Amino acid sequence: MNVGIWKQPQFITGLIILVSLLVASFVYPYFFELPKETKYLYENGNLVDVAPFPPSLVPPFGTDVFGRNLLALIINGAKYTLLIAFGIAMVRVMLGAVLAVIYHHYHDKLRPLFEDIIESTLFIPPAILGYVFLSPLAVKYSQENSGFAEMVATQSLVLILMGVPPLVSVFSKDMAKITDKEHIVSTLSLGAKNRYVYFKHVLPEMASRFWLVIAQQIIQVLILLSHLGVLYIFIGGAATIIDGDLLSAHEVYVSLTGEWAGLIGSNYEAIYHTPHIVLIPLGFFFLAIFSMNLVINGIQNNLKWSDRGRGW
Amino acid sequence: MTLGGYLRKLKSVSIGIIIISLLPSLISGLDQTFNLRNYQMNGKTYDIFPGIFEKYFYSMTIVLGALVIGLFFAILFTFGATLLPRFLKRLVYGILTVFESVPDLLIVLSLQMFIIYIYQKTGWLISNVTVVYDDKIYLVPILVLSVLPTIQLFKITFLLLEEEKYKPYVNVAKSMGLGDYYILIRHVFRNVLFNLFLYFKTIFVFLLSNLFIVEYIFNIHGLMRIMLSPNTFVFLISTILIAVPFLYVFELAQWMIHKSTGEREKEAA
Amino acid sequence: MVTMLDVKNLKVMFHSKQAEMVAVDEVSFSVRAGETVALIGESGSGKSVTSQAIMGLLPDNGRIAGGEVSFLNQNLVKLSEKEMRRIRGMKISMIFQDATVSLNPTMKIGKQIVEGLHYHQLFPKKESKGEALRLLSIVGFENPSDIYHQYPGELSGGMKQRALIAMAISCEPQLVIADEPTTALDVTIQKQILDLMDDYKRRTETSILLITHDFGLVSEYADRVLVMYEGKIVEAADVFTLFRNPVHPYTKGLMNSIPRIEDPRVMLQTVRDMAVQEGTFEGRVFAPEVFSKDGVTYHAPSALIEVEKGHFVRFFTNKMEVSRT
Predict the structure, then answer these.
(1) Residues B75, B151: Cα–Cα separation, whole Å
(2) pLDDT tens digits for range B193-213
(3) Across the interface, which of B177, B194, B260 has its CB nearest the CB of C89?
């Protein structure tokens, strides 16, 4: 990372969108109350409508199935969604980098088992992999009634570990390329210790690559979260509540954190009647991913630029 | 490429798959269902064999259909884009970045809503929007699934082509008096398609994830859906079934790249 | 002898966003049948641009601003792109500097070298394999049928360069432009490649325009030499005259920068100049020390002046007008 990145318009635009979403999300509760459930809408004492309400009644996006203002929910959920994605991506890359150093160093012994596991994950869609690991957890926690924080931590850990092996493989290949470069070879031949070389040469050289991969991982985690949402796997777990009147009671899963994927999941049943409740949160996923792509383009342009600078 | 090498690789990948399918029970300490005979879905019980092969071919047909359509349109669009002036090319690239950011879930759901909308307005149903039980639909899932690969492939071929056009061998071909379109098709396009092979893994992983969403949203009883069933054996056998042909393609791609370019191994980002 | 190529007052200009600049100016020379003419100069002196202009393959931002290039009394500058394609490859072909990137990596060698023959329909398609094998053996491959099926990535640098030569001579052109054909190769391979080209030239009476910066190669393979500097030819003579009596300080500088085995104690000389400005050129602007034939100080380049028979030098005159001899 160098100063040049702040001169990339795409990078700045993307970052501004993401930061404003986050700031709005954190500031929002201080100025407005969190939306309350309003199942029925009365006018002059007469029942006019039952939730979910269309955008014409509750601007700008209408309400969810519980009659809560959708925009407020989305703003409120932004911080959880973005920070969870960022956190998972960050730890994935950090863990991936540390393990890559170890792997790159001892790869002869570790390789066979490791490569096979990585190669085999290619044939399983990430959403299914996540589902297979997380759905027994959800059952377990709902039975044991464990704490909320513990639930979030375990789920995040699973999502982190799922993404680490491919990163280790990619990073160790990058490291092999860097350690083959002449200046590293000459450093080693002058008697530098391996650890010194990693901290002074290899990792700094990969720094901008790490940022790029973190940005790419954030997008992947966001997509994975949205997939898990429609599979009713929510970060923080789901409460099952009985919705509807006595005659047509049905179960509804409700996300406990209020992040966007949970919003999609808990309203997914209503898609045929009121598609906007699902499509609008997805639209915000699109906004976040698009901003991340702008950030990535900015980083890549900057890398190209600085590579050229080094070349001459 | 040797068959022995492929079989060896297949064996170790299978071991990896087995490890992965056993991991959940190690973590959560729950007894996993491991039933060799049948599985449950949507409250009904199905036999695993031989029904799973039918589901497998059905899902593979959708994937390959979507891949072929995606490839066709991506190449068509790229060819069209090469004829555009430079500022329009930048516009195309910008639009591609926007489209690339659309989550697959949003595209699939929107298309489903669109089909329902048409039905409500005109009474014309392209085909059943969701599947009730075991009826098979082909056209809609293939078309829906092909949208995202088209965008992704278009972006990759577009970038590869811009890079390829300025390589020295193009100049050499010109110095031999070959025509511009001849060079574009016989040399540049050919190499772009070849380079696409380098990205095959990335494209495949992406496509598989999309297939799952399409099957889930359209309620298609395909291979991806039954992988969700709590029976670990179904998960295991489905994954191996997917790995068998595609691992071969991966190995073939690797071998071809290695053979024709010496050692040009590039990890597709 | 027939004059194969005759370049007269060639002027090539390049434009960037800001300005237009002259890359090649007042370049005149001719190549006769069966002759090797060397165009020598440092990088950025305009020698490659000259060859691109002859082929009609200037980059998009370059254009021929004046002069003519006649090939067998046909002015190539005036030809349409379609007519030019009948010249390229068939009448004039080119060997490029970096063979490692000059071949299409995904196409088999055999197919690639006879592609020109196919395109120009000079050869029935059925017999093309035999022709490819013949070409490969001409350029010194002992196992042409193996090479035929190999991809460029499987060959070494020298082998690729030979394959490239096979491609360049496939349509039996009358003129081969070799743009630094051996610069990327190591010394032993260099000799092998140039001997090959020289041998081919002698057998077929082909003309070669050899573009290089290496006076060692020039002394061995060229019949006549053109020294190019800053887009202009500064000295032209046959190879014996030039080596016996170099006049222009730039030529002398280039020659003195070759080590001499007979006289090992003489220090190698660098080309001395007063670097004037960081120009728009790739290379440096060279301002020779005060230099003239008759002791007069000149500040602007003159026309080529014949100092002895067949030996032309561009002096610096104090007047801008061109004085002809």
Answers:
(1) 11
(2) 888 887 888 889 899 999 999
(3) B177
